[in-house]
């Protein structure tokens, strides 16, 4: 049996064609702070006190990445509202055309959107990615 682990993801690099505009856009959608310059050549998006996304300028083809944020119901409502205000199409599935719908599977709400570099962003209220816990 594994004991509780006290490590957390601290930061991750997000490849971008235009690190500034990509960082600013994500920060606006999430309603969080960002900076034009952080440590090194990155534009950081400060998701919370424990997680920073460092947008890095890349030339050439970018790998398509998937990033998911778990949040409260109220924060979810705010993200969906900001997507609408910013004119960013969203969908209920990870891939496919925008349908402006919210996925209600997995016991919560889920929404996906893409940004100019092709990354897929996800917001959800209940995680479906946790390791099952043994029943007691």
What does this protein structure show overall?
The protein is of the alpha/beta class. 19% of the residues lie in helices and 28% in strands. The chain has two helices and eight strands, in the order βαββββαβββ. Strands 1-4-3-2 form a four-stranded mixed β-sheet, covered by helices on one side. A four-stranded mixed β-sheet has the order 5-8-7-6, with helices on one face. The longest helix has 14 residues.
Give the SSE map.
Blueprint: E1 11-16, H1 19-30, E2 33-34, E3 43-48, E4 51-57, E5 66-70, H2 73-86, E6 90-91, E7 110-114, E8 120-124
Parallel strand pairs: 1-4, 5-8
Antiparallel strand pairs: 2-3, 3-4, 6-7, 7-8
Q: How far apart are the first and last residues' alpha carbons, in Å?
A: 13 Å
Spans of at least 5 consecutive residues with low confidence: none
Our estimate of the beta-strand percent is 25-35%
Q: Helical percent range?
A: 10-25%
Helix and strand sequence: EHEEEEHEEE
Strand order of the largest sheet: 1-4-3-2
The helix tally amounts to: 2
Write down the overall geometry: globular
Classify the secondary structure makeup into a structural class: alpha/beta
Number of strands: 8
Radius of gyration of CA atoms, rounded to a whole number: 16 Å
């Amino acid at each position: 049996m594994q004991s509780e682990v006290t490590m957390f993801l601290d930061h991750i690099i997000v490849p971008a064609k235009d690190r500034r505009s990509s960082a600013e856009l994500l920060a606006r959608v999430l309603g969080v702070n960002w900076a034009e310059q952080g440590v090194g050549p990155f534009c950081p998006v400060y998701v919370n006190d424990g997680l920073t996304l460092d947008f890095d300028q890349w030339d050439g083809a970018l790998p398509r990445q998937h990033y998911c944020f778990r949040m409260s119901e109220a924060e979810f409502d705010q993200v969906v509202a900001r997507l609408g205000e910013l004119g960013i199409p969203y969908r209920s599935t990870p891939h496919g055309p925008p349908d402006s719908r919210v996925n209600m599977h997995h016991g919560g709400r889920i929404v996906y959107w893409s940004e100019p570099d092709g990354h897929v962003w996800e917001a959800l209220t209940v995680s479906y990615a946790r390791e099952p816990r043994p029943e007691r």
